[in-house]
Amino acid sequence: MKIYIDGKFCDEKNAKVSVFDHGLLYGDGVFEGIRAYHGRVFKLKEHIDRLFYSAKAILLSIPMSHAEIMKATVETCRRNKLRDGYIRLVVTRGVGTLGLNPNRCKNPSIIIIADKIQLYPKEYYERGLDIVTVPTTRNLHNAVNPAIKSLNYLNNILAKIEANNAGVEEAIMLNSEGYVSECTGDNLFIVKDRQLLTPPLSAGALYGITRSVALSLGREMGLETAEPNLTRYDLFNADECFLTGTGAELIPVVKIDGRVIGSGKPGAITRELVERYHALTKVSGELI
Ligand code: PXG
User: Fold this and answer.
1) φ, ψ for residue 270 (rounded to 5)?
2) Domain ranges within the chain, ordered by starting residue
């Protein structure tokens, strides 16, 4: 595999960063997770937009333009003959000194990895997930804003461990007010009386790209869509529930905190959204 690091392609075994990189020392940096389908990079522009927004929020100036990063991403896929897979784009604050002041980091590093994707096992897509809410709450807006896709994902990792300890694959995180925010690497949706509902971004959800696609597909299907604050009660009494994310795509949820959701099987609207999502990935995206 060829990895892109700061303008050069290097072999996997030589793809290394310094132990003084503040991305490693402090989680000081931002990232994106992108998918390629059928020789096309899905929603590439939207991912690069979000990368720049995350970088702006942490005052990290990316030493490449939007267009250059798009080109480098497509080129990394080409060099690796990747037609279907996962692209990890990472921008770190760069090499500095011990001490957290980023003013010693002169050159941010840009890393692009194009690899195969590890999906949830197929049976989860067919049967649906059983998930739980966990004690670790979503980050506060006035701390590290949860809209930033930063290299510091410890909060989400803690929530994921709590889910694993409960014997399930994913965790629902609430915000500090007790409203549903999202999962550790996915946004959450419910269907209630043909309305497609997802928590507002102000509840601490990531500005998910798959979330936006699901909302627009829902509108195409004639569903009403809204982004109200949701509580666990709303989830328990939903007709259907599913998660969205670049990695997971759209995955049904059939049980939450021991409560069966709807019929206990992936719902009809969820299944139609999944089909429409797959159809879209076939025909749209930046050609590799
Ligand atoms: N919430 C969080 C906290 C995320 O990190 C999403 C929602 C879904 O957003 P998108 O834009 O992908 O629809 C994410 C995205 C991984 C991985 O390696 C994580 C994500 C995406 C791809 C891979 O676990 N998170």
Assistant:
1) -55, -45
2) 2-115, 122-283
